[in-house]
Amino acid sequence: MTRDELLQRLQDIEWEDFECKQAKSELPKSVWETVSAFSNTSGGWIVLGVREEKVGKSRTFVIEGVGNAEKLEQDLIGTLRSKSKFNVTISVRSQKYDFDGKTVLAFFIPSSTVKPVYYNNNLGNTFIRSGSGDQHANDAEIAAIQRDQAFGSRSELEINDTSFNDINPESLQTFRRRIQQYNEALPYNQLGDEEFCRKIGVTLHGKMTYGGLLMLGKRDSIREHIGHFWIDFIEIPGDSSANANERYTYRMAEQENIWESYKVIIQRLRLYVDNPFVAREGGFADEDNSQLYCLREGLVNLCAHTDYFSPMHPTIRVFDNRIEFQNPGTFIVGIDEVKAHNVSLPRNPTIINLFRYARLSENAGYGIDKIAKWKELTGSDVTFETTLLYSTVSYFLPSKGGQKGGQKGGQKGGQKTTDRLLTILASEPTISRKKLSQVLGISPSAIQKHIKKLKDNGTLIRIGGAKGGWWKVVK
Questions:
Q1: How far does CA 245 lie from the centroid of its chain?
Q2: CA nearest 64: which of 45, 73, 55, 51?
Q3: For the whole model, what pTM was predicted?
Q4: What CA dihedral angle connects 374, 376, 364 and 300, to 10 degrees?
Q5: Which of 153, 175, 225, 349 shows its CA 20 to 30 Å from the CA of 308?
């Protein structure tokens, strides 16, 4: 941090990664709270020798300087490197500034690779950064910090007392068919099911991996090993749950695994975007490069970054004015850094890799570009928020006909039921009538009527029998 950058920071109102403290002759006691907070979150600067003054609701910062700068610097650095004060050794970078003879010290505290970081051998002295202040971490936040120690590796671990038999056969079949259609060059396509699963990371040494079980496993097996698994999708008629006319107009039934949840949710999301039906040779829909593509990246992002061991579950809420993806777990890398450098650091690498095999996610680091493209396509914002416990990506919906977009506008202005049905069958030709009923929100008997009409006019052909067959959409 240069001298000019420091001065610029002092003119700002609030920072999450910057803390000023007076220090005339000794280190202030509150410095240890800030060290803990920065270490447990995204890191930050501690500046000694600057006093905060509040005038009414505003505040200014006055450079006072420190006394005995060398001693203060040695005391802080020596304490953080010795493990005498904290439970881990903390690396620190220091800088010294001169302002008209007044010495200011600045110390950069990085985010620790070992967490939680606390002092005086007391887990209760665990702090986190919230806004521009240090806050005691509560039990749920400490638990989330501890779970993040396995960040990026848990999904690849094998699970004892599991086997290939814990895979849902229908999920594996439709997943493989998707890959065969959209990733024909994958060399594993010709392998048998068990070898295929081993090659792509669903199994390891004959056991299920956490990522493989979550993605393709049987619901009972998932619940046995990951007790809180549940992806929720809910459509709420209002701008918030509090002001909704009714609790919800649609809620997705509980699904077997991530793959089954994804298939239902992506079809529901089609109702809220411009997504005309297009088919290619063979009856399968082309990849979207549209509003739905942006939402798809948000959905895959939620699946890949969720902390599945949190008591909180991932939820997609569709309000009148926005579509909100919320998942347990913090963004480990700041969203600005991801945008600037295309950083890819998924919480569950196995899960994101499985989506990439199926050509349902961008290459590493570029998914954020597709999410951000929402504003270009719709004229409405997409926002990112994160805490230690959860992260939220919100896609705001454009106005339609002078009314707020979303549930009412999306359904009235979207595709007709027959067009939506064709789109779904083209992209998922083995889907059951029961699941079609869930996705479209109409009865199974109504589904049957639409299918009969499409078969009668030659638009839809059934290939094979009721079991093992599939639908072919004819242009």
A1: 29
A2: 51
A3: 0.65
A4: 10
A5: 175
